[in-house]
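Honest question from a wet-lab person: if I give you the sequences of every part of a complex, can you actually get the arrangement of the whole thing, not just the pieces? Trying it with mine:
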Amino acid sequence: MADTARREFMLGEGAGTGGGSQNLKLNLGPSHPAMHGIIRITAELDGEVIVNADVEIGYLHRAFEKDCEVGGYNNAIPYTDRLNYVSPLINNFGYCSAVEKLLGIDVTERCKYIRVVMSEISRICDHLTCVGATAMELGAFTAFLYMIKAREFLWELVEDVTGARLTISYGRVGGVKADLPAGFAEKVRHALKQTREVLDEVHRLLTGNRIFMDRMEGIGALSRAETIAYAITGPMLRAVGVPYDVRRVQPYYVYDRLEFEIPTQKAGDNYARYLVRMAEMEQSMRIVEQALATIPGGPINVDFEGRAIDPAAYVDRGKQGKTEGLLLVPITLSPNLEGQRRAELSGLNVSDKRITLPPKENTYGSIEGLMNHFMLIMDGYGIRPPPGEAYFAVEGANGELGFYVVSDGSDRPYRVRCRPPCLPPMAALHRMIEGEMVADLVPTFGSVNMIGGELDR
Amino acid sequence: MDGAAVLERVRARFGAGVVDAHDHRGDHTAIVARDAVLSVLAWCRDEPELAFDMLTDLTAVDYLRYPGREDGPRFDVVYHLYSIPHNHRLRIKVRVEEDDAVVPTAVGVWPIANWFEREVWDMFGVRFEGHPDLRRLLMYEEFVGHPLRKDYPIERRQPLIGPGA
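Yes, you can. This is the full assembly:
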């Protein structure tokens, strides 16, 4: 009797008592370290082989799309940070670009270059995390620590530019928050040199390593046809030999002016995905270096360059009774404002007053600036794209990251849809693990690089 | 093929099946009758000149509070297609009324539609007829209502129900 109860507990009601075998249901997660705490896989096992699997998501759902509908267009930017917490800059820019497309505006050259540089730095961070975590889950803790060390070099760059490591909120509709700091190119050169050294070490540790290859090669493979049918993009699609990369096929920002390759592999297994990611990091570094070498000159100083001064600046002059040379004297504002930012921002952001916030000295120094500020901040005002809809795709670290934004002409997005790059591979995960050993589930799941923030939104 | 030509091909093939078409900011959109949507999607995938082999995205929009759309139809189900061989995109929309929010499933055309449609059912309450497993994707089974509907208040709270409750 006790025997039956135990058998039923293990195998389910009515489990056979005689010889032969019965499949075992194995529940993995959500409270399982390899499942990031947010994925539940119910796998049916025949011995050690997974017969079928059901993947359950949604444990990290935070109503991103609903939240976007209640605030202004720029209010959604901090939420986009949280979509992909390893490469949040790409999400920022993807969302901003979708709104810019809806508005029908184009950002400035310098801003495009900055977005490219920051996107590629984020892509390297993302790949470092993915490869490092996969290696760690196979027991290669050293490689993980090395790669996290390299990510630290890059996150320090991100911190330099945005002021934060993760919740960066750096993108703005029509531009970016601030210019690159002084000496940034030099810091990047140094960080990339260190990152290359780490990658070289990891290559020697993992690529061709017998233990690593035994666990990765031929595991979790998807055919080319199935990868496409599941709408999988990014490194996983390139690992089956399709050179699809939004940066190349539908170039945005300045990617069409930069030289880089699209690494591909044929096998479509975990090892091919690893190789693609490793090769892509080098390509991203090439892009960063080229972009920093060709980035158009710094902020435009309207006074010294002899260009037209913007109307708010004229008002500033008039109010202070000086009609000449006023802007040569820096205006000191309150202690928590950084002082003059007009020159910096005028070279970065689009000059449309209906879209970008005025520099703080205009807000506090002139009535026009103050009104401009209020017209963008006050409830019921703000950025108002004309009614319509737009879909804009960027190449996220995991594949095509799309934002579909619908406007009803008001100051709030009517609908924001994020097309998460890691949802399709998660939908196909059961196809990758069925027929594999249960121990192969973890590295396969790692090679998907599931990012809970964007998967569950 | 550019978007306008793609749209032209779809219109020429399906005639009255394409209710409306427009081009906003370079995104070409065909609004398709519900009865025709499955054949349009399958044809877009199989026609060699179009070869839309990828269903990039499938979502929905609730037009309940949209100026000019208050009288319905309430929902747009939105398909974003992409063709790897030809590098072109197309957006296809199907309009459905609130009391008849049913669309035939595209799982037979692209397997990824399975999860996308589950999400749309979960968030908007649009049913996909013939779907093999139309469970909620992001919310839990006991959740009442469809959160991305415009008449679902954002501050509504529901008790989290544990297993067996």
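Two things worth pointing out. The two ends of chain A are 48 Å apart (CA to CA). Chain A has 20 helices and eight strands.
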